[in-house]
Amino acid sequence: MPPTEPARWFSAHVQPYEPALRAYLQKRFPALPDHDDLLQETYLRTLRAYEGGRVTHAKAFLFTTARNAAIDLFRRRRGRDHEPISDASALPLLDEAPGFGEALEREQRLEVLLEAILALPERCRQVMMLRHLDGLAYKEIAERLGISPETVKVHMIKGIKDCTRFFQRRGMLGADTPAGRLAS
Fold first, then answer.
1. Rounded-to-integer distance, Cα 31 and Cα 171, Å
2. Which CATH architecture has domain 109-183?
3. 46: buried, middle or exposed (CB in 10 Å: 19+, 13-18, 0-12)?
4. Half-sphere exposure of 117 (CA within 13 A, CB side)
């Protein structure tokens, strides 16, 4: 049976970039261990878009799709991670699954955090995401965005203050907390 048009297109326009795409994912998202899963998700999204007539530049679309798939995976996993406990006495004696209320509260906190980040100015949001999602240092962020490390620092401070104010307005932080005093 001869290959279909999407299969021929995939072989010619997508598959040659697999080594570069793997290297990109490893460098940009080293904390995510499932690069094979990311590749499969990227390929699936790319083929669907091709079949829908939405792909004009395969390489650019492929790398953008891989980045978006990695961020989606990071968000899904981050929501399932446990929160660090600073006091050993707070550890439960038995391994208990979180209740519905706790899961709902965590989901609501994540939604508010996402709202706070989306409310930031574009450049500030980029800096915060590169720092906290990708784990880049100020110097790396500066190089990637073409700004000075001092400007990165200014955007980080603004982002933290704006997010803190956002949380205060929603009653999630009091003015008497260290973060609350920072935003004042």
1. 32
2. Orthogonal Bundle (1.10)
3. buried
4. 15
Q: Residues 137, 142, 148, 152: what is their CA dihedral angle, to the nearest 10 degrees?
A: -60
- pLDDT per residue as tens digits for the range 17-74: 999 998 888 888 777 777 888 899 999 999 998 988 888 888 988 988 888 888 887 7
What phi-psi label fits residue 90: left (phi over 0), alpha (psi between -120 and 50 degrees) or beta?
A: alpha
Residue in the block written with tokens 């100020």:
138
| CA distance linking residue 63 with residue 42, whole number of Å | 8
Token digits for 11?
């072989």
Residue tagged 């509260």 (tokens): 105
**168: amino acid identity, one letter:** Q
Q: What are 132-158's pLDDT values in tens digits?
A: 777 889 999 999 999 999 999 999 999
Yes or no: say if 166 and 119 are a contact pair by the CB < 8 Å rule: yes
